[in-house]
Amino acid sequence: MTGTTPRELLLPRYVREDPAARTPVGFPDYRSTALRAPLRTPVDLPHRLTEVTGPVLGEDRVQPHDADLTWRNGGEAVGQRILVHGRVLDSDGRPVPGALVEVWQANASGRYRHVVDTWPAPLDPHFDGLGRVVTDSLGRYEFLTVKPGAYPWGNHHNAWRPAHIHFSLFGRAFTQRLVTQMYFPDDPLFGQDPIYNAIPAAARHRAVGRFSLERTQDNWALAFEWDVVLRGTEQTPFETEDDGDVA
Amino acid sequence: MNPLDVPPDPAVPFQPRSGQRGSGFLTGPFRLGTTPSATVGPYLAIGLTWPDGDWAAAEGTPGGFWLRGRVLDGAGDVVPDAMVETWQADPDGRFASPEDPRGASSSPGFRGFARAQTLSGEFAVFTVKPGRVPDGEGGLQAPHVDVSVFARGLLDRVVTRVYFADEAEANASDPVLSALPEDRRATLLATPADDGYRFDVHLQGDRETVFFAV
Ligand SMILES: [Fe+3]
């Protein structure tokens, strides 16, 4: 090594997951993917500075009322009140504090407040279906909403989306960006939904929240718990050759 | 044969296909399964609209320009319900991120991140040209912007990179770009336009953009 060689930057490398364990970009039963999902195999991008950094999108993007979707336009949304809570972690089990979590969903009747959604279910003047929260120092988040209804979507005859809440999350790095959906336990619509079934079978349970009696609020709201796990780093600091020394 | 009469010394020791003894549960690094991705769906505008989304750099930043483009499907039709996110270094090659080990960007008004939708037929991001960023092997990468595209009909984001057609010299030595087949590199080049650069994303077809696994 010479004095003119730039000092190497010590960068984390994020886990590259087996594509078979991840949701594929395209899935034939979900018809809209046919003309949209790229057909060529993606090229592995090394994890350099651009990939291991990410924007800081914290408290300044969030208003206090963004964590309570049940109150809009001076009135209360119709539906089953639910508290959705959980942690944002990386796959090493470390909490991700300060992570921006954006959620959106249909109202209790299964209708979105969006110009393209015109199926005949009622809009709710007191529900816009938008929420935002930032995880605390332990990676925890929670928001109050109403349970979204199922809705038809025309993908196939009598196609209905199981109840779900859309989630968008930023971790620390570009590699950790995730947009996903949280489902509710034991939904009878799972079997016919290609968006749910596109998830590899072994990973589907990770998309489903858990009913959480311990956080259910007496005379007020049911609770569901859902932890979101973003990709962690390739090596943990505790990795050791000496398996007798785990302290 | 008595099932307890196990041969003391098997001729061939057990060789798991993974090359690792056991399941790794006790000896391997602790690892949680990641949450599977899902499509952003057709109603992304409800949850993901930011009034300041287009601005990776503040209005009026010297050297600022618009990066505009369309997202096109396999039939050549414009995708109007996509969201494009960009992430890049500032002109000094620094990131507006605490994860930059050299220290975060100090460029005033520089966020380095933008989120734009394609409702009008194309996305538009106001930004500045990124500087050259170390490639981790003693060299420098060409100026580039990492891009995520989300849409109804995509069950995961697709990731690509914008390079700049007027950076031929830097592009020629960029380790990512030069590793691609020559005829595919052009899909990553933004071309100069009136008020900045143009970069169309072709999700499929003869000109399918090079997408990356990150
Ligand atoms: Fe939905």
From TrEMBL, chain A:
Transmembrane segments: none
Source species, domain of life: Bacteria
PROSITE patterns referenced in this protein's UniProt entry, alphabetically: INTRADIOL_DIOXYGENAS (PS00083)
Domain Intradiol ring-cleavage dioxygenases residue range list: 84-112
Alphabetical keyword list: Dioxygenase, Oxidoreductase
InterPro entries: Intradiol_dOase_C, Intradiol_dOase_core, Intradiol_RC_Dioxygenase, Protocat_dOase_b
This protein's record includes keyword Manganese: no
Entry's Gene Ontology BP terms: 3,4-dihydroxybenzoate catabolic process
Keyword Oxidoreductase assigned: yes
GO molecular function term, any single one: protocatechuate 3,4-dioxygenase activity
Family (UniProt): Belongs to the intradiol ring-cleavage dioxygenase family.
Name this protein carries in UniProt: Protocatechuate 3,4-dioxygenase, beta subunit
TrEMBL record, chain B:
GO molecular function, one term: protocatechuate 3,4-dioxygenase activity
Region (Disordered): 1-24
Protein's UniProt keywords contain Oxidoreductase: yes
InterPro entries, alphabetized: Intradiol_dOase_C (IPR000627), Intradiol_dOase_core (IPR015889), Intradiol_RC_Dioxygenase (IPR050770), Protocat_dOase_a (IPR012786)
Domain Intradiol ring-cleavage dioxygenases, chain residue ranges per copy: 65-203
Key words, A-Z: Dioxygenase, Oxidoreductase
Top-rank lineage group of the source organism: Bacteria
Biased composition, class Pro residues, residue ranges: 1-13
Homology family: Belongs to the intradiol ring-cleavage dioxygenase family.
Full protein name: Protocatechuate 3,4-dioxygenase alpha subunit
Provenance organism: Geodermatophilus obscurus
